Amino acid sequence: MRSRHKQTQRTIAAGSVLLVSLVGLIVFLQWSDRQDHLTGDIQEDSSQSLHAIGIQRPGFADMRLALIDSQWQIQEPCLADVNPQRMQAFSSLQKPASHSYAAAEVDLLAAGLIEPLATVSLNDTTLHIGNTDLSGERRYIQRNDRIEFAPEWILSLLQGGTSAFAHLIVFPDAMTSLSIQQADGAAVDIADHIMQWQTLSANQVISWPMKDDEPELRQTYTLAYESPSKNGQLRVNVYDAFSAVLHSDAHCAYVVSNDALPTP
């Protein structure tokens, strides 16, 4: 009787260990699949390294991002440095998802892929972004003749346009000198205000000139700066509702509130 009791205990213990192992395996597989789908590591082969990104959205100007000297930059519709934290979304999309469906098996009209909400090109790969599925948490993605899913927020990021990807800090480099250029060409040193300008952050980055009529100009002046990586000038246009900080030939404006703009 005691022997049977011990055998029963051993059987229960072995079953418990097996059950725990199975649960652990299921959790691991789910986690691994989610990692493959959401973060998909980029292949180490340099030929697969992401170096060019294009974004098309109906009703908006096309965007083009390029990797230049190991730094991502917005090339179109204007020139601006990219916030590197925003690039992870593209890295996660570059590798095909571990699970996909043949396009012929999916209602492409219902999935929003006949007229995509956005199209992204990653090097030579084109992805069409469609509607959300019934859960509302995933979006349909078409890669060639396969249908995958991506997180719902990917479209919100793309719809943010230039402002969603640009580095909003007006001066990304540490300045060593700063001066105001007067109309007669004379420079007035304002080194005492470097830290205020150094921390200036834009509310958004937009293409310039504006599509709509430019508001009435209240004041304009030019700042000349030096930094370890480059020297340059930028113009500050002050309007009633906002100020636009313009880098030379960038065709971009860093839009800031007048209250945040340091006093020249």
What can you tell me about this protein's structure?
- The chain is α+β, with helices and mostly antiparallel strands.
- It has two domains: 46-161, no CATH class; 177-256, no CATH class.
- It has five helices and 16 strands.
- It has helices spanning 2-38, 88-94, 153-159, 161-165, 194-198; strands at residues 52-56, 63-68, 71-76, 80-81, 101-102, 118-122, 125-132, 138-143, 146-151, 177-181, 187-189, 204-207, 217-226, 231-239, 243-247, 252-256.
- Mean pLDDT is 82; it is low at 1-47.
Order of helices and strands: HEEEEHEEEEEHHEEHEEEEE
- Helix/strand class: alpha+beta
Query: What gap, in angstroms, lies between the N and C termini?
Result: 94 Å
Low-confidence segments, given as residue ranges, are 1-47
Name its key features.
nine-stranded antiparallel β-sheet, seven-stranded antiparallel β-sheet, alpha+beta, 264 residues, disordered N terminus
